[in-house]
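Today's session is about reading a structure prediction critically. Students often jump straight to the picture, but the first step is always the sequence itself: look for stretches that repeat, for charged clusters, for runs of hydrophobic residues. Only then move on to the predicted structure, which in these notes is written as discrete structure tokens rather than atom positions. Here is the chain we will use throughout the hour.
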Amino acid sequence: MEDLLFWWLLIVAATLYMASRGGRPSPLLLTYVAGVSSIHVPGVINYLGPADVLSGDFETRLGFEATLAGLTMLLVGALLARTPIKQLELDAGRAERRRVRAAGTAARLNNQALGLLMLVVGVGAYFVAMPIAARIPSMSALVSPLGGLLILGSWFFVWDAAQRRDRKQLALILVLLPLLPASTLLIGGFLGYGVGWMTAILAVIYCFWPRRALFVLASPFIAYLGLSIGAAYFLERTEIREAVWGKAEFAERVDSTLQIVERFEPYSLDNMEHVKVIDDRLNQNFLVGAGIFSHQDGYTGLYFGSTVPVWALVPRVVWPDKPQVGGGLDLVSDFTGIYFVDGTSVGTGHVLEFYMNFGWPGILVGFLALGFVLARLDRMLVEGFRNQDLPAILMAGLVGMALLQPGGNLMEMVVATVGAIVCAKGTTFVVMRYVRRNAERFVARNAPPTPSRLVPVSH
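Below is the predicted structure for this chain, in token form.
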């Protein structure tokens, strides 16, 4: 496995370089690579130790090879999105914006005020509106993307701190980050959502903050700490979810969650309890490898796109009896021949589902296209922050967040992306009107009064 881990390290190094290269940061691409790594790499690292309780090394190796091939094509797709012609267009656009700013015609926004607005709406959407929307047909698909505003709000604070080189504000953001996984665990019983949010914010910090060496040096220690916490969480997850899903009092939920602290100990490859629980939950490679072997041995055929049916885009309010969107247990079981206990949460994952549909070409072309799209969204997002273009930030940010589901199903991702596009347009309309009416709060002091696309100010 050492050779494959070395290949993975090269991919990570290339991603970090692309994400921080001058003028073309790529926070969405970096977040996606980190997300894929979190569900594929720990299961491979386990095989560096005694691994007495593990089996399926052939499946794990083959699955990780497929994952690395996909990530390599992801980076190729991102590079294709940075063609010389597109870069010339980008440079020309920057030159024009510099000329406009030199003439003093661009208003400057108050990033902190906008960030706070996004945070409030995002928190309200995810923690308050979503439980209600889940009971109304088609509403959850529209309300769910609004939870991404919580992340966008944090990005505004990061951008503000980076522009002003405010280390205190950056330190405050870093200190508050653990509240995200803590809140999703206490309220929903899931740690993964909050960890994904943290990853997205850390990726933006890495891309926007001018000094990145400290983040690179600290990343192995953060990853090791996360692996140790993950092992403790998986060992106590059943009790925590019984308290949360059983609507226990908040104090009881906190007590059950604190068991993670009591159970915590540094992750060790010699600790078979650690190794087994991580292999069960963070070794997506085994499922990928088992699926490939199953197909190659003739036990199952390819699906040729049928895992993403067109009917999934029909709103449930129009089609009340529409089959449930999402859920990968039956899909994975049918393709791999591995069956799970009822109630087990199983995500198909992009690597396996691309293979399910079109085999190895599906992995290569699927990740190539995904890398291209993420790179284009990254450019829109970063240019949006630089140009104070709120519509661009909302569109790129919300759609990008919908695509950052490497462990989920493609059908869920497609539905979430369509919902994010609709949500971004609607949110832009509402927020722009609110910002216009409260321009004195959202435009920075001493800003020129001429309208900009973000804050069309009129005095």
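Discussion point for the tutorial: Confidence is low (pLDDT under 50) at residues 95-106, 446-459.
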